[in-house]
Amino acid sequence: DIQMTQFPSSLSASVGDRVTITCQASQDMNHYLSWYQHKPGKAPKLLIYDASKLQTGVPSRFSGSGSGTDFTLTISSLQPDDMATYYCQQYDDLPLTFGGGTKVEIK
Amino acid sequence: EVQLVQSGTEVKEPGESLKISCKVSGHTFTTNWIAWVRQMPGKGLEWMGIIHPRDSDTRYSPSFRGHVTISADKSINSTYLQWSSLKASDTAIYYCARGRTTVMTPFHDWGQGTLVSVSS
Fold it and tell me: Of B47, B104, B108, which has the smallest distance from its Cβ to A98's Cβ?
């Protein structure tokens, strides 16, 4: 199984800050990685797929990058609506696996 | 617009059986893989397994194989997650999620979640 280690597990940042979340795979992967935003009581929302492709309708302040074992989600200018938990997911191999999540809070 | 509508909250006792559903509309049901994802209280997302509705080809996470059954009924555009004997540790929110036409897939569309509470 490909284990996905996500860090930090939580962070607090101010509106307008640049925020970076990292996902590390337990083995080299292709670019088959996605990022989701999950708010309490809501369904998860796909933000990024294929490591760097922005899902239709997602604000351009979200971006993804990375290769091999290290992948990042960046929010270029944090907004109040971005308060949520973010998850990475690999789909390079079965079983598909999620990272442990990063809870983003606004200072 | 693709919609995944899941069945409602369930309150059960340990040892009982349960089948929850996910009805898909807005696209051709038999083309895309559909997965089930668990979120236990205060915890993260866990991929349970995935099914292709065209032929019911199903793959399970080793963590869930043997404890749950995933099925589909293409005549009514629905997939199901079922337990034959629930445990308290099955208390969670369960999401269905639509992927691509390949089994290795991200999930573009999600159901609203079904809360399952198991307690004596």
Answer: B47
